[in-house]
Design goal:
The complex is a heterodimer of chains A (420) and B (194). Chain A has 7 helices and 9 strands. With 420 residues, chain A is of the alpha+beta class. In chain A, the strands form 3 sheets. In chain A, strands 1, 2, 3, 6 and 7 form a 5-stranded antiparallel β-sheet that branches. In chain A, strand 6 and strand 7 form a beta hairpin. In chain A, helix 5 packs antiparallel against helix 7. Chain A is elongated and about 135 Å long. The two termini of chain A are 48 Å apart. Chain B is built from 8 helices and no strands.
């Protein structure tokens, strides 16, 4: 037998099977002969093995202990009530239970999502939500018993499913590089960090401004009021319009029939659905009162030396532009755009007079997103798509974490119980 | 009852037959007590651990599946011993009190003469101190394989580790013991110098 000492101690200095057998007192004559023959080649390792063999020999000289008494179990040693073998925790299939818990959790999430209880919090909606009812229809039976019992019509709470256009704030995520001073090992270190911040969208909009300009007309100086359009960067919350299906409970007048309660309003409006039929009590926001001041101001000054009557046109714009009313009250008056023209006329007379006439436009021009939105009825419910980044609310994270913790604790407990 | 084989006694014990289980106790109590004694080095504690091991085994015998019953018992004893060592914070040291066992009592006496008894006592003391220097895992591997003489497979089952882990722990434990005994040659009998 070729015996290699190097081979005896393999990885991590552990002896191989042959050396192990020798250390544990193996009595193979061929092995012992080989060991004696090769002791000269690796005396240190040979001595190491020999010492281990002697150590084991010493340990084996220890006599096994004998029990000093009987450890037979007496009935009174056992706890009061021995557990029934019918139900054992160890018999629980832990993976199956874990899968069931996860399935339950997912089911709860899906259900909450479908019912609208679940809120996806990935985007920020900071501004006041402005919504416009696009369409609605009654769903299900009246929620409450009629509050009065007249012969024909009663009032009942009716769930209404409606499509609303919501105006929500839009923000954008911007990558910024900031310089931060940090304390590292007691020393101030300037670190350049890249952070992602959420900022309102900065847009540029055109602003109409009125300016007073002095002009030279045929050698004469004339002061006129001019309207110019200036493009200015404005930082404000940009909004986007989304269509959302929501269910609200409204008080409706219903007609009692032998077959049940019928929406009297809907019946009355059946031949020609009227937009005003939507002015229900379920408005989510009061309509803001338009506060535009349509009174235009026009100033024209005529130079007495002028030979030709100059014509100046002044346009006054309201100082505030109220947001279009999004509520269901279709009767709100559209805000007139206060536009006025001023005409200045001058004649070359010794006593020059200037006449300025401000004439508001007779037809008020509604703003771009003014309230009178058509309300087609019935309207198929459009699919609601939410392309915002999904995220979980705090309570959902807590629920998820709690369930994972419970599963982990159950797993550890069962493992420990199995190990006894 | 004592002549029945293990499997039959285990089946009877599963049905709540205490006499059948006590037959198993009589069969394995020396093994359990010996390991507990070597691990904790205290007679009273070893007795308590042995008794608790059998009570726990009886209460949980429905969980025992086919396998080595002695290894299963030793595994329960190991868990109980580890808990005891953790509680008493004695994982690496053995306090000296009147209950602490002297290994001189359990070292084989080659001859009854007074001189041999002194040598045996010295060797027992050396082994006792050397084992106390080991960690619980290393000590258990030495106790099971080198002192109790179990095979690697049974020791692995009792320790709840793989065969390779047993060998690795055993090798390290032997080397530690060897170094300990070499550093204290005065503890060894004259004919057992390393």
């Amino acid at each position: 037998m070729i015996f290699n000492w190097r081979r005896l101690f393999g990885r991590r200095g552990e002896p191989d099977e042959t050396a192990q057998a020798y250390i544990e007192g193996g009595s193979d004559p061929a092995l012992e002969e080989e060991i004696r023959r090769l002791e000269d080649e690796s005396p240190e390792e040979a001595r190491d093995i020999e010492e281990l063999r002697q150590t084991v020999e010493i340990l084996r000289s220890v006599e096994p202990a004998k029990a000093p008494r009987s450890f037979a179990i007496q009935p009174d040693m056992l706890p009061e009530r021995r557990r029934s073998p019918g139900f054992q925790l160890a018999s629980i299939p832990v993976p199956a239970v874990a899968a069931a818990v996860i399935a339950l959790f997912v089911g709860v999430l899906v259900t909450l999502n479908m019912t609208g209880t679940l809120r996806w919090g990935g985007d920020t909606e900071t501004a006041t939500v402005i919504q416009t009812v696009v369409a609605e229809k009654a769903v299900g039976a009246p929620m409450a018993e009629p509050t009065a019992t007249p012969a024909a019509a009663v009032t009942a709470a009716v769930p209404v499913e409606r499509v609303v256009e919501k105006e929500v704030a839009r923000t954008e995520r911007v990558v910024e590089t900031v310089i931060v001073e940090k304390q590292v090992l007691g020393e101030a270190v300037v670190v350049v960090e890249t952070v992602i911040v959420e900022k309102p969208v900065i847009i540029t909009e055109k602003v109409v401004e009125t300016v007073v300009v002095e002009k030279q007309v045929e050698g004469k100086s004339v002061v006129v009021v001019e309207t110019v359009v200036v493009e200015k960067p404005v930082t404000r919350v940009e909004t986007v319009v989304e269509k959302v299906v929501e269910t609200v409970i409204v008080e409706k007048v219903v007609t009692a029939t032998p077959t049940g309660l019928v929406d009297a309003e809907a019946e009355a409006a059946a031949p020609a659905p009227s937009p005003t039929a939507k002015s229900l009590a379920a408005t989510t926001m009061p309509a803001p009162t338009p506060t535009a001041t349509p009174a235009p101001t026009a100033t024209a000054t005529a130079d007495p030396t002028a030979t030709q009557a100059p014509t100046a046109t002044a346009t006054a714009t309201p100082t505030t532009t109220p947001l279009p009313s999004p509520t269901a009250t279709a009767t709100s008056t559209p805000m007139p755009t206060a536009t006025a023209t001023a005409t200045a006329t001058s004649t070359p007379t010794p006593t020059p007079t200037a006449t300025a006439t401000a004439t508001p436009l007779p037809t008020p021009a509604p703003t771009a997103t003014a309230v009178p939105t058509p309300m087609p009825e019935p309207t198929p419910m459009p699919a609601v798509t939410d392309d915002r980044a999904p995220g979980l609310a705090v309570w959902q994270w807590l629920l998820l974490t709690g369930m994972v913790a419970i599963m982990a604790a159950t797993w550890i407990y069962v493992r420990r119980r199995n190990a006894i | 009852m004592a002549s029945l084989d293990d499997q039959l006694l285990i089946d009877l014990s599963r049905g709540g037959d205490l006499d059948a289980f006590n037959a198993l106790v009589e069969r394995y109590q020396n093994a359990v007590y010996s390991v507990a004694l070597r691990m904790c080095g205290n007679r009273a504690a070893a007795e308590d651990l042995t008794q608790n091991t059998f009570i726990s085994a009886f209460q949980n015998i429905v969980r025992f599946r086919d396998g080595n019953f002695r290894a299963w018992l030793l595994r329960i004893a190991r868990n109980a011993t580890y808990d005891y060592l953790r509680r008493s914070k004695r994982g690496r040291e053995l306090t000296v009190d009147e209950d602490v066992v002297s290994f001189a009592e359990i070292v084989e006496s080659p001859a009854p003469g007074p001189e041999e008894q002194v040598l045996t006592a010295e060797l027992g003391e050396a082994i006792s101190q050397g084992l106390a220097e080991l960690s619980a895992d290393h000590r258990l591997s030495v106790v099971l394989v080198d002192i109790e003489g179990y095979k690697y497979e049974e020791a692995a089952e009792a320790m709840g580790v793989s065969l390779g882990t047993v060998k690795s722990r055993l090798n390290r434990a032997r080397r530690q013991l060897r170094d300990f005994l070499k550093a204290r040659p005065e503890l060894l009998p004259g004919g057992m110098r390393l």
